[in-house]
Amino acid sequence: MDFAQIFLAAAVKKQPNLNPNIFKRYVENFDWDQTISSLLEKVGSFLLISVLFLIVHSVGKKLIRQAFERQVKHQNTHLSKNRKATIYTLSLNIFHYAVLFFYIYAVLSLLGIPVGTLIAGAGIFSIALGLGAQGFVTDIVTGFFILLEEQFSVGEYVKLGEVQGTIHAIGLRTTQILGDDGTLHFIPNRSITVVSNFSRNDMRALIDVRIDPNKDLHEMQKIIAHVNQELAPQYDEITIPPKILGAVDPGNGTLVLRVTIYTKNGAQSPIQRDFLAAYLEALTQAGFDIPTIPINLN
């Protein structure tokens, strides 16, 4: 008993009212060899295409990586290290999506789906898809201009809206920011409207020391100036030496002696803490009583 007879017997058993002659002729006339051969051919072609695109994807990423590694070794290029890292990440994303698009196109064509005809004749669907993908397109366009205008690069410390941290990656659709607490934020590029970049220029360390109303202000300034003279040469990150601005009323019933120091980006907070601690220690040793509550200026 061949495969067709077994299939016929099973079908008749399940469907008692089925005419065995009609079903028998259908099974006998069905070209099983051609169907199985066509199926195996499509499966083989699918596996071949998958392996081919996997090789292209792997080799392409390797070539991109090697090209950027050669660029990193050339110190005479006008691109910064962070800039190269940003372009490298974006290039990988573009290549990945391009390979994925052609892979899907090849698989659909293999299945006999007329992709070109569908794309040409799907006017209404294209409009609906365009409206639905409007945000996606906006993300890509915004990401392109972010890269073109060099608003920020990988490794820079920025504030995007309410999120502040270090740029971890820039993609076609989203920008990743690593927050100060270790949280990785994914921000759609279309949501980036205001960029505050803290890594492009020198940063200001602002130090306010509350004034002892019972002591001489000029003596306090002399002590702080002496601390600046001894402590400033120890920090290579300082770009503009400390400057005493004098007494300032920042509001809320307080009166402070303000000092400004300009440093390289990223060094302002440690320098601010170190200088403030040195000021308080020197003033305390000199007999100054630094107020811990606001002074009533009235």
From TrEMBL:
Q: What is this entry's stated membrane topology?
A: Multi-pass membrane protein
Q: What InterPro entries has UniProt attached to this entry? A: LSM_dom_sf, MS_channel_1st, MscS_beta-dom_sf, MscS_channel_2nd, MscS_channel_C_sf, MscS_channel_TM-2, YbiO_bact
The subcellular location is: Cell membrane
User: Domain Mechanosensitive ion channel transmembrane helices 2/3: where?
Assistant: 93-134
Residue spans crossing the bilayer: 43-64, 85-105, 111-131
What are the residue boundaries of the Mechanosensitive ion channel MscS domain, all occurrences included? 137-200
Entries under Gene3D superfamilies matching the protein? 1.10.287.1260, 2.30.30.60, 3.30.70.100
Q: Which UniProt keywords apply?
A: Cell membrane, Membrane, Transmembrane, Transmembrane helix
What Pfam families does the database record attribute to this sequence?
MS_channel_1st, MS_channel_2nd
User: In which family does this protein belong, per the annotation?
Assistant: Belongs to the MscS (TC 1.A.23) family.
Q: What is this protein called?
A: Mechanosensitive ion channel protein MscS
Q: Which organism is it from?
A: Ligilactobacillus pabuli
